[in-house]
Amino acid sequence: AGRVDLPTYAFQRERFWPEVSQVSGAGSDPVDAALWGLVESGDADVLAGVLGVDASTARVVASGLSEWRGREQVRSRA
Asked: Which of 14, 39, 46, 57 is in the most buried spot, having the most CB atoms within 10 Å?
């Protein structure tokens, strides 16, 4: 941390707080976006190959993840 000169005039409009960068959820990382794209596509065979599990397991996992993500998206908008 370093010293910062503060304004001497009360209404001098100068921000001293750091700016927060806005990061969008799934679209910010290409790996995450690809995984969520596979989950939402419903293609259990491709998802099974990526995850290294059988297609029936991938189908159950994709269904559960898709439902969870839908609920979280609705909740985050609220």
From this structure: 39
SS3 content of the chain, % helix, strand, coil (to 5): 60, 0, 40
Rounded distance between C-alpha atoms, residue 57 and residue 63, angstroms: 10
* Residues whose CB is less than 8 angstroms from the CB of residue 58 and which lie 6 or more positions away in sequence, other chains included: 44, 45, 47, 48, 51
Report pLDDT digits (tens) over 22-32. Answer: 555 545 688 88
With 0.70 as the threshold, say if the pTM is over it: no
Q: Which one-letter amino acid corresponds to residue 51?
A: L
Q: Which of 24, 6, 23 is nearest to 15 (CA)?
A: 6
Q: How far apart are CA 7 and CA 1, in angstroms?
A: 18
